[in-house]
Amino acid sequence: MRFEGKRVIVTGAASGIGQACVSALLREGARVMALDRAEFESDAQLSGACDVSDAHAVQLSFQRALDAFGGLDVCVANAGVLGSLALLDDLSTEDWLDVLRVNVVGTFHCLQQASICMRKQGGGAIVCTASVAGLRSGAGPIPYSASKAAVINLVQTAAQQLAGTGVRVNAVCPGLVETGMTRMVFEMARARGNEDKIGQLNPLRRAGRPDEIAEAVLFLASDASSYLNGQAIPVDGGLSSSLPVVPGRFM
Ligand SMILES: NC(=O)c1ccc[n+]([C@@H]2O[C@H](COP(=O)([O-])OP(=O)(O)OC[C@H]3O[C@@H](n4cnc5c(N)ncnc54)[C@H](O)[C@@H]3O)[C@@H](O)[C@H]2O)c1
Questions:
Q1: Which domains does the chain have, with CATH numbers?
Q2: Which of 10, 15, 182 to mutate to test the pocket of ligand 1 (most atoms within 8 A of CB)?
């Protein structure tokens, strides 16, 4: 019960990694407000529709959580979209803005509201969901990857700006995980009969599960990581630990 009495907001909570975070937090005793862009069923004490790209909607939701819980200890800014898969020549400005609005500005809105609440209390933990795609290329489309690199920098810069407040800000960088966002990849592989090829580029040779990412999020949100701040932690089976190699060969 690491989160007994802790007050938590999770965004992107209707599906995948966010949903797994809510389940794990509830199991560990947290009081949770679960948010997603449309209404959805949740076991959380509070839930509701909140488009994170809408600053006013985010502010209202955070106020609702503060009114109900009396404070905020943890924010999991997890909502994200994959966006356009178009290649360099075919990307439009709108393709970029669709992704940046949610993944970067939406994460910023949550981080801003969370840090305002937490500063007044003298501390708290903010965990943003970035991606291995934000660490280097090769793991996602162009606007998505750039947006996740921006999330990592947002986390680093915010951690510095919140110096002396007791508010910690970190990111998880998941590798490939089966969720609403990636379901098509998994379904296409299953249809072709080569599901076993998924995740073969990482040393664990499998995709991750949402609950495995949630475990890392909970660690970063808990007092167990009390000296961990401004970091982006890959949770990717080891994918990002190496340059590309042919197994058994070193050159
Ligand atoms: N699945 C992966 O392989 C993977 C890898 C790296 C990072 N991520 C990141 O993990 C996070 C969670 O994604 P997931 O994989 O669980 O996918 P998902 O699609 O299952 O869940 C994302 C949730 O975010 C919600 N959302 C989207 N736009 C929103 C908005 N404007 N306001 C509020 N909610 C919004 C969606 O409705 C959805 O419920 C995302 O930030 C994603 O980029 C996923």
A1: 7-177+209-231 (3.40.50.720)
A2: 15
